[in-house]
Amino acid sequence: MRAHLGARLVCAAALAAAVGGCDQAPVEWKDPVELAGNDTLGRPRVDSTGHSSVVAAVASAVIAPNDAMLCPGSLRSVKGTAHVYAAWWGMRKDSAATPFVSSAVPPGEWTKPLAVDTTDVGTAGCNRPPPSVTAVGDDVFVAYSLHAPEGRGVFFAHTMGGMVHEPVPVVYGERVVPTAIAAQDQRVVVAYEEPNGSLFFIDAAITENQGHSFGWHVAASRDVDIGRKPDIALAGDELAVSWMATNGGGTGADSAATRVVRQGRIK
Known about the structure:
The protein has one helix and 21 strands. By secondary structure, it is mostly beta strands. Helix content is 3%, strand content 47%. The protein has one domain: Tachylectin-2, Chain A.
């Protein structure tokens, strides 16, 4: 059974014992910056000197793996050291879905897909947010949200040496939500829409042990925002999280939203 994890700002008990409590959040945030215009496609970028910027999101040119059950629009890809990696949802006959990963050496064929997590008991079919994927060298890290037997939540898994390690819970909640992921060395940060409550915020979970456990959960978006569609970038201790924001309540439409970027330094 995956252990329950808490809500918007949580310090894990083991980390609290190690650092003497939860008096300080692990990210020192700067003020959020709203992008000019309605840049719904902007992606955050940050370097180790603390310089942050936003770059245009480029549609993936990766040819989809030959999976008849691949959910349209769910494929996400990333370049590793020598391979390209892809993650996607494959719908099952019972309308649940399984996240898969595969690799290819361009322009070679995809390897046999690896099932990341087979525990979904939801019935949404392909009507769910795509998984998010990143790589450190040729280790692959995947974040996704599904309805597990013990409840809905955000989960994390990674592959090493062609094997998928046991998925780890990031946070449980009332609904399935979009995710974004970044990693460097042993550090992994997962951004996600807060899955609890009537409003929508963007939070981030941080691990320093390749995702074997997530010790910190911090609020990234402002309380005045309705935050949707998170994205994330990581370079050393510098972190940048972005989201689509509307003000005042409800879910909002993309046409009425502004992308907001917030930079912080992980302590």
